[in-house]
Amino acid sequence: MSEKHYDINYLQNSRRLLVNLKEASYTYFEKINSGAIIDLGCGAGKDVIEIAKIVGENVKVIGVDHDPVMLEQGRTDAKNLNNVEFILSEAYPLSFDSESIDGLRTERVIQHLKEPQRVADEIARILKPGSPFVIIETDWHSLALYTPFMDIHKKLTAYLTDTKINNGFAARKLTHYLRQSGFKDIKFEIHPFILTSLEDANQYLWIEKMIQETAEHGFITPQEFEELYGALKEADAAGYFACSINLVVATCIK
């Protein structure tokens, strides 16, 4: 498993699971009829393309990401859209003038930031007053695997939230970041996702890879890996596998 908790295949697979949540996030930008919208941490640019189709050619939709391979895929897929642009950049600093952007969306990005408040402040700087800001985040602490091995599960969750993910409790801190940056009209929603097969859990959440990496880094023993993952395989074979995780959506206005 790479240092990142994602690659292009992971993003494409998880997109199928999250399509309804993604589409709902686009609606916050429907009334924007000029100017520019940013998708920060855009990955391979699928959300950029979908938003660009919704808002029309008078609005430029800018995908920003630090991964040149992801951006190249986005440019290829968006070659027939005139209102799309992709920029290689970290989340801080952002090379946009103050109060120059009409809306901003970011999905599963805040969890990876070592200085999330600094990024929230930067977003507040570039947004025009009255502009919408939409965040989708994974609550890694909410990950639930239904087995009797709760002590091992706790070690897995601790590895994810305290070590693997830079900001593993980001989902629970979002409203604090927004308040500190001066955003108003903050709203918060929790969306649980339930998976009923081990295949889906491995495809959408990389469950086996996460447990393997937890063992490789010494947070659990090889025996504990076999016990936990063996219980998941047994549950799957018997038809009672269950796994859940929450995603949260925070919306606000500059």
Structure characterization notes:
With 254 residues, this protein is an alpha/beta fold. The protein has a domain at 8-140 and 166-194 and 246-253: 3-Layer(aba) Sandwich (Rossmann fold). The chain has nine helices and seven strands, in the order αβαβαββαβααβαααβ. It has helices at residues 8-26, 46-55, 68-77, 116-126, 150-164, 170-180, 198-205, 207-216, 222-238, and strands spanning 35-40, 59-65, 84-88, 103-107, 132-145, 184-195, 243-253. It has a seven-stranded mixed β-sheet with strand order 3-2-1-4-5-7-6, sandwiched between helices. Strand 2, helix 3 (68-77) and strand 3 form a beta-alpha-beta unit. Helix 7 crosses helix 8 (207-216) and helix 8 (207-216) runs antiparallel to helix 9 (222-238). The chain is elongated and about 55 Å long.
Which tags fit this structure?
single chain, 254 residues, alpha/beta, Rossmann fold, seven-stranded mixed sheet, 9 helices, methyltransferase, transferase, SAM-dependent_MTases_sf
- In whole angstroms, the N-to-C terminal distance is 38 Å
Structural class: alpha/beta
Name the CATH homologous superfamily of one domain: Vaccinia Virus protein VP39
> Any idea of the CATH topology of one domain?
Rossmann fold
Number of strands: 7
Q: How large a portion of the residues is in β-strands, by DSSP E?
A: 15-25%
CATH architecture of one domain: 3-Layer(aba) Sandwich
Biggest sheet strand order reads 3-2-1-4-5-7-6
Task: Compute the CA-based radius of gyration.
Answer: 19 Å
Order of helices and strands: HEHEHEEHEHHEHHHE
Give the overall pLDDT as a whole number: 94
CATH class of one domain: Alpha Beta
Counted by DSSP, the helix tally is 9
Instruction: Please outline the major beta sheet.
Output: 7 strands, mixed
Helix amount, in percent?
Answer: 40-55%
Shape: elongated
